[in-house]
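Record minuted for completeness.

…
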Amino acid sequence: MNKIRPDHQDPSQTTDSEPPSATPEPVENGTGAAAATDHDAGAERDESAEANAENGTANIETLRAELEEARQRALRLQAELENYRKRTQRTMEEERRYASLPLMRDLLTVVDNLQRAIDAAEQHGNASGLLEGVKMVAQHLTDILKQYDCVPIDAAGVPFDPHLHEAIGQQPSTTHPPGTVTLVATVGYRLHDRVVRPSQVMVAAAPPSDAADGGDDDKEAEAKLPEPADE
């Protein structure tokens, strides 16, 4: 009988306990695919990061522009508010400054009447007590007006000013240059720098031309007139 050597075993008689030998090629193929996938993913991440950075830069520029526009708008609004405050304050000051203007207009009629009473008493000359009393009242009222900065307008002998004077007529004058106030009919008043009422005045006009020439012209005109017809 032939004996079988231990080193010459039949391959078919190998036991199931021995694991099959692993081949390296499938392992190498899987590692390469994973590396390629990781590379692609990294490239995509880089591109995404660059895109996000560009978008972030654009957003920052947009925010800066909007912030500058908002700042300019706030400055304009602040300037408009300051101008409005100044206008309001100026209007309030003017209203407070000229609040007594209607009162001054009413009081001036009293002054006029007192002045007329004084003039009438002086003409009659027999009412010395009444005259002194009326003068005192008139002076008192004038002082009250002055306390409120309501003062008479200078008119007599000064050049006519349409802002301060109201011309009620003209009269030829050889002692005053043309355009000069020669007579004050009604005294005007002003409150601070605003006219309450203008002074009513007569204004000087240029005198007629040479009187002799005028007389000769009149004579010539009379000579040319036809004589009246006999009835």
About this structure: The two ends are 209 Å apart (CA to CA). The first helix runs from residue 25 to 97.
